[in-house]
What we know:
Helix content is 28%, strand content 8%. The protein contains one helix and two strands. The protein has a two-stranded antiparallel sheet. The chain is elongated and about 65 Å long.
Amino acid sequence: xxxxxxxxxxxxxxxxxxxxxxxxxxxxxxxxxxxxxxxxxxxxxxxxxxxxxxxxxxxxxxxxxxxxxxxxxxxxxxxx
Length: 80
């Protein structure tokens, strides 16, 4: 079986998967306990990384391209 990450939580009695996923009996699992602050910090790190990537791709001095600047039209493009 391939490795997969599934969000889950502890309801006070047992670990409950947050998404439906069929497991066979005796399937080996690795459980990582994330403290709320660690999960929030990781989420914040990923958000910061995504924002930085978007800022570098779409800077404030990015030129505006108009349709008349296109040299070869895409025949499959449907303008909305």
